[in-house]
Amino acid sequence: MAYRIRGLDPAPFRKYFGLSDAALAAEGVVRYHVDAQPGFPDRVTMQDLAPGDTALLLNYEHLPIASPYRSRHAIFVQEGAQTPYEAIDTVPEVMRSRIVALRGFDRRGFILDADLAEGDGIDPLIRRLFDNPDIAFVHAHYARRGCYAGLIERA
């Protein structure tokens, strides 16, 4: 079973690019000047930002389904990010370098299966989750802080 991982569409975040820190604060967004790598995983390009880059920390609703699992959490977006990551059967290094919680959801937005993986164990877990035909999509979360990492869909 082939799968696709995509970064977030940058369009909803563009309204924040270039705003003053005060204007961002009014929107509940915080600007960070990246000073260490890893540490700021961008959800658009699906890579760790490099020192000198600018990251925006904001709250993002990653599961806007009307179910008990509806969810939102903090994410980093590179200020100025333009092109979202997209790959088939390839786990980006930003995920491979961290422990991830993978949660398999059905079309109603209910979790049917979930587990933890890291490094070379992520791909086999994604495939095992998609062996269940009732799993419509998988959400990845960074296990330590719980932040949404990305959407994994059947290719």
> How many separate helices?
3
Helix content: 10-25%
Uncertain residue segments: none
* Order of H and E elements: EHEEEEHEEHEE
Distance between the termini: 8 Å
β-strand amount: 35-45%
Q: Give a short account of the largest sheet.
A: 6 strands, antiparallel
* Overall body shape: globular
How many discrete structural domains?
1
Spatially, the strands of the biggest sheet line up as 5-1-9-8-6-7
> Would you report the number of β strands?
9
Please write out the topology.
Blueprint: E1 3-6, H1 21-26, E2 30-33, E3 54-63, E4 71-78, E5 86-88, H2 93-96, E6 100-105, E7 111-117, H3 122-130, E8 137-142, E9 148-154
Antiparallel strand pairs: 1-5, 1-9, 2-3, 3-4, 6-7, 6-8, 8-9
Question: What this model shows, in words?
Answer:
Helix content is 12%, strand content 35%. A hairpin with a 5-residue loop joins strand 8 (137-142) and strand 9 (148-154). It starts with a strand and ends with a strand. The protein has one domain (3-154). It is mostly beta strands and 155 residues long. It is globular, with a radius of gyration of 16 Å. The model has no long low-confidence stretch (mean pLDDT 96).
